[in-house]
UniProtKB/TrEMBL annotation:
Residues 52-127 form the Thioesterase domain. The lineage of its organism: Bacteria, Pseudomonadati, Pseudomonadota, Gammaproteobacteria, Oceanospirillales. Pfam families: 4HBT (PF03061). This is PaaI family thioesterase. It comes from Nitrincola iocasae. One of its GO terms (molecular function) is thiolester hydrolase activity. SUPFAM superfamilies: Thioesterase/thiol ester dehydrase-isomerase. Coiled coil: none annotated.
Length: 143
């Protein structure tokens, strides 16, 4: 694997096109990609809500997982088989049911085979995070 610590290997447009092919079920948008973090936005509709009028845990976890995947790919390039090996989600506050969900992903360690990152999830327009995620991803060896 080449050195990925100092440059983006995929920009927002390239990542959006890549996700459309390898993960077409993602209905959100990549809104920002930098060396420091990535931001994704997931519109929320009734299909994302659970009883009690809150965004479901699976919706929040899926967005966090994609956000970390995008952050990793931005640094290593188009490796579709980069997979989650560990994922811990702490639900902190009730998300707003009629607001989009925002995910800010940051990489903590970018290794040759393992990457560790964290995600803060927010309801759009709110300052307090609704969840905090830490995940580890396995990067396939280069051939």
């Amino acid at each position: 694997m080449t050195e990925q610590t100092s440059a983006l290997l995929m920009d927002r447009n390239e990542l959006t096109e890549f996700l459309a092919v390898v993960y077409p079920q993602f209905a959100g948008q990549i809104t920002e990609v930098t060396l420091e973090h990535t931001w994704l936005r997931q519109p929320i509709d009734i299909s994302h809500l659970r009883p009690g009028g809150t965004v479901s845990g699976p919706t929040m976890m899926a967005l966090a997982d994609v956000a970390l995947y995008v952050a990793i790919l931005s640094r290593i390039g188009p490796e579709a088989l980069t997979v989650t090996t560990d994922f811990t989600c702490h639900f902190l506050n009730k998300p707003v049911a009629n607001a989009a969900l925002l995910a800010k992903a940051t990489l903590l360690k970018l290794g040759k085979r393992l990457v560790i990152g964290e995600v803060e999830l927010y309801s759009e327009g709110q300052d307090m995070p609704v969840a905090h995620v830490v995940g580890t991803y396995s990067v396939p060896p280069r051939r």
